[in-house]
Known about the structure:
Number of strands: 3
Shape: elongated
Strand order of the largest sheet: 1-2-3
Strand content: 5-15%
Amino acid sequence: xxxxxxVAETSQIERITSKREEGPSSPAKxxxxxxxxxxxxxxxxxxxxxxxxxxxxxxxxxxxKHSFFCIPCGKTxxxxxxxxxxxxxxxxxxxxxxYAQTSQSNTSLLDLFASLTKDRVTRAEVMATNFLIQHNLPxxxxxxxxxxxxxxxxxxxxxxxxxxxxxxxxxxxxKALGPSCHE
Length: 183
């Protein structure tokens, strides 16, 4: 004899089994038809807002509208996930704070260069470094420029004080000329 269940009995069994599947620890609640759940990544990417530069020490990246360049850290970071929150989280981090404190205690070579534009020796060193970069010459070439200038121009005060070796040339490239390339 085949057991035939009524519709009421079938629905009662379905309710009991669904309660067992959810269990007491399951927080699943039945959603109304108007409610939906959002699972996974965002459907769009956030873009850089130039207004953020007024609040944080950052600037836009030329070829990537979903990233920002942190000036104290000297690195590019993504802001595509949560936008301004990505910037806030980065600026609140220990590494950023360390770089920001270091940059505040030291005078930037860019600021130093701006304040010493009348200093002819510094101007000559920056011009020679710029020449090396433009013509794709090795930085080690700068070790030989000082003696060569002194031999070529023995009566020049600028040549006598020119002392831009590879270390100083690297500093000028990374701290004075490099950041202007990111703009």
